[in-house]
Amino acid sequence: MKGIVDLNSDIGESFGTYVLGLDEEVIKYVTSANIACGFHAGDPLIMEKTVKEAVKNGVAIGAHPGYPDLMGFGRRKMDISPKEARAYMLYQLGALQAFASANETKIQHMKLHGAFYNTSSNDKKLAEEVLKALQEVDKDIILLALSGSFIAKKAKDMGMKVAQEVFADRAYNEDGTLVSRKLPGAVIHDKDEAIERIKKMVLDGKVTTIDGKEISIAADSICVHGDNPEAVNFVKNIRESLISEGIEVKSLNKFI
């Protein structure tokens, strides 16, 4: 039992006059923020504002690169080449790195977004180029990736810093992948059930799959969403419940 975990959330995903998420509320309860870098969401003004908000709240910042797909919010799969994957990484990391430097902070971690995250988790060629780009920018940046995925294992083999991510409100398949949102039971709406699952993942390294089987899982960071008032309360309850169980909630750079 490790008894220590990070809470991460995707923020900075508004664009121009379009507002998405309750960033100023959710940032009070997380330890790491995944900040959109302008491809799937976010723009220069929002990126800077989000970095400043994270710094103000003592929350570690992370890059959240996505596919260049504002219309589809980066959730549509794109047929990109490994060369493009590396270039997309360099472009977006560089953008956030500039805002971080201007605000006297550094990028702690990198977590891919949406379809880029899902595809690169187990597409070997894309994963390798993503990792290559990450190393080229800053070898100290932590990769935040789906627990048990190819990209997480490959990064460890390459000697990189890796944090394995689990989801508070998602059901799992027997192979450790997330159940498709298209299927019934994919999203867990009962906060008490979700919190109990999280405790089991963090303390015991186990999760019960959608078919009722128990599998092993590594949980360095929990992804939480705060895009509505109910979700923000959910994040708050998760943090308070973990702390009440004696589980330390800290940013990744404190224990990875």
Could you walk me through the main structural features you see in this protein, from its secondary elements to its overall organization?
With 256 residues, the chain is α/β, with parallel strands linked by helices. The chain has a single domain (4-254), classed as TIM Barrel (Alpha-Beta Barrel), CATH 3.20.20.370. 39% of the residues lie in helices and 17% in strands. The protein has eight helices and ten strands. It has helices at 23-26, 44-56, 82-102, 114-122, 124-137, 150-157, 191-204, 229-244, and strands spanning 4-11, 32-36, 60-64, 107-110, 142-146, 162-167, 206-208, 214-216, 221-223, 248-249. The strands form two sheets. It has a seven-stranded parallel β-barrel with strand order 1-2-3-4-5-6-9, surrounded by four helices. α3 (82-102) links the parallel β3 (60-64) and β4. α4 crosses α5 (124-137). It is globular. The two termini are 16 Å apart. The relative contact order is 0.17. The mean pLDDT is 95.
Strand content: 15-25%
What is the CA-atom radius of gyration, in angstroms? 17 Å
CATH fold-level assignment: TIM Barrel
Helix content: 25-40%
Quote the distance from N terminus to C terminus.
Answer: 16 Å
Q: What overall geometry do the principal axes of the alpha carbons give? A: globular
> Biggest sheet, in brief?
7 strands, parallel, barrel
Number of domains: 1
Strand order of the largest sheet: 1-2-3-4-5-6-9
Total DSSP E strands: 10
Q: Could you spell the SSE succession in H and E letters?
A: EHEHEHEHHEHEHEEEHE
The SS-based structural class is alpha/beta
At the first level of CATH, the class is Alpha Beta
CATH superfamily: Glycoside hydrolase/deacetylase
CATH architecture: Alpha-Beta Barrel
Instruction: Give the number of helices.
Output: 8
Low-confidence stretches: none
